Amino acid sequence: MSSNWLDAVAFDADGLLPAIAQDHRTGRVLMVAWMNADALTETAATRRAVYWSRSRQRLWRKGEESGHQQIVHDIRLDCDGDVILLTVEQKGGIACHTGRESCFFRRLDGAADQAEWVVTDPVLKDPKQIYK
Amino acid sequence: MSSNWLDAVAFDADGLLPAIAQDHRTGRVLMVAWMNADALTETAATRRAVYWSRSRQRLWRKGEESGHQQIVHDIRLDCDGDVILLTVEQKGGIACHTGRESCFFRRLDGAADQAEWVVTDPVLKDPKQIYK
Questions:
Q1: What b/e sequence results for B67-89 when a residue is b if at least 16 CB atoms lie within 10 Å of its CB, and e otherwise?
Q2: Contacts A40 to B, Cβ<8 Å
Q3: Would the annotation count B78 as a binding residue?
Q4: Residues B60-83: pLDDT tens digits?
Q5: Where found in the cell (chains A, B) (predicted)?
Q6: Is A116 a member of any domain?
Q7: Residue B72, domain member (yes or no)
Q8: Domain span at residue B86?
C-alpha cells in the first residue's frame, strides 16, 4: 500500500476536496462534485468517476442510477493539491441531474442590478425518465 | 439595490463558494479560487475576476500584483447554485502562481500503487519575476 500519490492531495477538514469533470472532447465543464480519499482511489483504479455524496454520506459511483457514467481520461491536481480536475467521456451526454449536458446551464446576463441568470441549455432528457 | 441574481447563489457557511476560471478560447481550466458575495458582485460589475483570498482574508483582484488579470467573458452558475464558472481571457497567459498557464499542471500517470503525479507544463515565467 504505497499510495504515495495520495499524499500530495490536500483534503479539507472533512476529508473532502472538490473535483471538476470536464468533457475530454469539447472542454466543457460538466459538473463539480466532492471526493474523499476512497472516491479518488477508486476513480484512479477503475477510470470511472466516483464521488462522495455529501447529502447521502456515501460513495456515489456517477451513473449508478442514471447510467450516465463518466469514463475518466485524465486526472489532474492543482498547485495547492486541493482541487481535482477530471477529463471524462460523459455517457449519454448528460452530466446534470436536471437532464442537461452540464450543470452550468445558467449564465449571468445584463449588468449590475439588472443582471439575471438565463438558462442557456435545453433539457435533453426528462429527469423522471433518468431516475426511475 | 435589487441584486436578486445574488439570491440564487448558495454561499457556504463561511459565505464562500468555489469559482473556476476557464480559458475562453481553449477551454482549459486555469484555476479554482473562492468568492464571497463582494467578490462575485465586483467580478460581475467590472468583468475582471475578483476572488476572496482565504489566506489573506481579503478581496484578491486577480493580477493586482502579477499583472495577470482575468478579463471575464461569461459567468455561469451550476444547478445547485454553489459553484461559479468563469470563462476568461488570461492576461499574460499565466494563471498559476508557479508561473504556469494553469494550476492543473500535474497529471496522474500509471496505475494503482505505482501511479504518480507528473508535471506536464513548463514554467513560462519565473515567479520571482512575477512577484517582485
A1: ebbbbbeebbbbbeeebbbbbbe
A2: none
A3: yes
A4: 999 998 899 999 999 999 999 999
A5: Cytoplasm
A6: no
A7: yes
A8: 4-93
